Predict the structure.
Amino acid sequence: MAVVDAFQHWVYEHLEEAKEPARCDACWAGLWQRFMPGVDWSGLEHEMMTGWHRRLHIFTDPFYYVEYGVAQLGALQVWYNALANQTQAVNNYRKALSLGGTTTLPELYTAAGGNFILARPNNKVLKQAVDLIVFYIQEIEHGS
């Protein structure tokens, strides 16, 4: 998600450069290496550099990938709340679902017991989500 988002920002900020596929390939490769370190692409460098060709959303729905991140952060907040009080978390989530398209996204997050951090940047919410994921990954890796 980060690679796609950063790539699209680069394209829109560098329109002339982005008209040349080779420059797009180079930008994508640099971003891939930045955000996906440790993956060995030996012998597949061309496939890695041209990965942006295979991301349909880049061409049809620019910046749609941001919605995935927004949804994932919301889901992680509901999960975090459920770990503390599952009944309340489910009730909040159902309340948010019942509102459907009748209110704003930040208000839906609030109803679900979360914070829409794009409306009010909040590093605490992001840190909480990352810490939760890291904790469970470590638990799985160590067999706890």
Summary: The mean pLDDT is 92. Residues 92 and 113 are 6 Å apart (CA to CA). The chain has two domains: 2-60, 65-141. Residues 65-141 form one domain.
